[in-house]
Amino acid sequence: xNEVAGQFSADWEPALTEAPRAPAFIVTLYGxxxxxxxxxxxxxxxxxxxxxxxLNESLVRxxxxxxxxxxxxxxxxxxxxxxxxxSDAARDEFRDAARLLFSxxxxxxxxxxxxxxxLREADLPGAWARLSPNVAIAPNREDVAPLDGILMxxxxxxxxxxxxxxxxxxxALDDVATAYESFVKRHSGLLExxxxxxxxxxxxxxxLRLRLVHDYRHAALIDPRLxxxxxxQDWPAERARKLFVAAYVGLSDRADAYxxxxxxxxxxxxxxxxxETDRRLxxxxxEAAA
Length: 290
What we know:
It comes from Alloyangia pacifica. Pfam families: PaaX (PF07848), PaaX_C (PF08223). Helices cover 49% and strands 13% of the residues. By secondary structure, the protein is of the alpha+beta class. It folds into two domains: 2-106 and 166-289, no CATH class; 111-154. Strands 5-6-4-7 form a four-stranded antiparallel β-sheet, with no helix packed on it. It has a three-stranded antiparallel β-sheet with strand order 1-3-2. Strands 8-9 form a two-stranded antiparallel ribbon. A hairpin with a 2-residue loop joins β5 (129-132) and β6.
């Protein structure tokens, strides 16, 4: 893997010219590559993979130490080698993120309202937003947890009030749009390279897929995924989603082959593919064909 470190230039691929933050990128690496293949990775492999993205060994070791301190990674020493896996709490969080990336819940049609005096001092979780001190609203999706209080289901009546302005204000949708637009700008050249038959090595394919996941994950995690009627004009979420799906599928054969050839865990090598990685790809291919 060392021979590919630092070979990506601005002329080759804009997505790889700016180094990511080490802790966040390590989280991406575990979510995309390591967790679906058992969860354990040798520190040496982690260092080599991060070097391709401009993260030196010192940065990686510091980031891993902080992730361990935060209870997100756990270390295992076997002989002279150190291996790291996700903690149980982080594993549950990763599963939720994986569902968002690989099998997202469709956009809802209506809303949830919660009425409770207890909302006055509460920090609202997830996609919930405050309408008044004792009223909160959220998109009515199966993955949105209800709040304690009187819960109602509501539907917006067309022609009554400016729902788009309300949603932009309450959920800071301008920030979400900026994240999606940045993702599209950074990765828009990928499909042309893939569809045009550009030669991408297995190492390059994995590097590009990791940055694709890293940038899309950032945007998708801050997206409240509201009903379509609340989307601002020219909402970029669908363009970003189509780019993510097509590029991930197009890069995965070679990227996964590289994982199977180069990534080391406590049992030897990570598998190139398994039931979980095949399931992810199947879901994305089905989405692309819909």
